[in-house]
Every structure is written in structure tokens, then in C-alpha cells.
Design brief:
The protein contains eight helices and four strands. It has one domain: Rossmann fold, CATH 3.40.50. The chain is α/β, with parallel strands linked by helices and 165 residues long. The chain has a four-stranded parallel β-sheet with strand order 1-2-3-4, with helices on both faces. The longest helix has 16 residues, at 141-156. Helix 7 (113-122) links the parallel strand 3 and strand 4.
């Protein structure tokens, strides 16, 4: 972000983020870490949220790696929980001040919807939640992309609240 903001073609008053899965996680953490820069964000199927719950709710990789490790080292569970807590999106979410748009597939076996709800609930900012039945890790991308585009455009157009002049 620091490099992008130095570019003459970037309007530093109109910076938004959008991503799904790991991109959703990066949207959440970046919005939390740069609250004076990020005006809005759209996070789909956010990964790296609710680590310990995710490992219990799914047996899909990469969370299954945590389960495999704990089967061999069950006495390390508390240490694991403390470690992943440093970069868990749920812990970053309360620091977000930008408007956020979160979308979740209710049959996601990679990033369980329960953890998407947890990160959404932890957000104290203006926010919208969109859920899609019968959708997995794609999080309803076919239906949600026009809504994401409208959300970002509405928050980032010149003269929008928080969107520059």
C-alpha cells in the first residue's frame, strides 16, 4: 500500500480493497492496519478467520494441517491458539473503520461460514453481509460480483462520503 500511494495515478483519498479467500483475509487485515487510508473493502469467503474453530469445523486443507499436527501434539493446542491469534482476522476486525461488504457461501468447506459470521460480528464499522445458499468457497461469486462492484463504486466515487472530492 505504501508504494501504491506514492504513485501519481492513485488518489489516496479513494482507496478500497477487494478479495476472496486469502484476498478476503488481506482485505480485513489491511483495512484494520491502515484505517486512515482504506475507505471500504469487500471480503469474500474470508480465510484466516477463526483459525481454531475452522480446524474443528472442516477437514479441508489447509486447516486440516492444524488437525494433523494436533493429533501428534495434542499438548500444543493452547500454544497454537495463542500463536494463530496474532494474525486471526477476527482479532483485526474490531479495528476496521472502513465500510465493509462481506460475502459468504453457506456450504463453504474451506472457510466455514461460521467463521465468516464471527469476523463480520467482530466488525464495529458500517458493514453489509451477503450469504449464498448452495455455494461453497466461491461464495456466490456469480451473483455477488455486481453487488461488490456497486458497493466499491458507491464508496469510492468522487464526492462520496469518505471518497475524496
Amino acid at each position: 500500500m505504501e508504494t501504491a500511494l506514492t504513485r501519481p495515478e492513485v488518489d489516496a483519498d479513494r482507496v478500497g480493497l477487494s478479495g476472496s479467500s486469502q484476498g478476503g483475509a488481506l482485505t480485513i487485515t489491511t483495512a484494520a492496519l491502515l484505517p486512515d487510508v482504506i475507505k471500504c473493502g469487500a471480503a469474500g469467503a474470508p480465510y484466516l478467520c477463526g483459525f481454531m474453530d475452522s480446524a474443528k469445523l472442516t477437514h479441508s486443507y489447509p486447516y486440516e494441517e492444524m488437525n494433523e499436527y494436533l493429533r501428534v501434539h495434542p499438548d500444543h493446542e493452547q500454544q497454537m491458539a495463542e500463536t494463530v491469534g496474532y494474525y486471526d482476522g477476527v482479532n483485526f476486525a474490531p479495528n476496521i473503520r472502513a465500510s465493509m461488504f462481506v460475502y459468504i457461501g453457506l456450504e463453504d468447506d474451506v472457510c466455514p461460514p461460521e467463521t465468516g459470521f464471527a469476523v463480520y460480528d467482530a466488525m464495529k464499522c458500517e458493514k453489509e453481509l451477503h450469504t449464498y445458499e448452495r455455494c461453497g468457497h466461491d461464495a456466490g461469486l456469480h451473483w455477488v460480483l455486481p453487488k461488490v462492484d456497486d458497493f466499491l463504486a458507491g464508496h469510492l466515487k468522487p464526492g462520496a462520503a469518505g471518497g475524496g472530492e
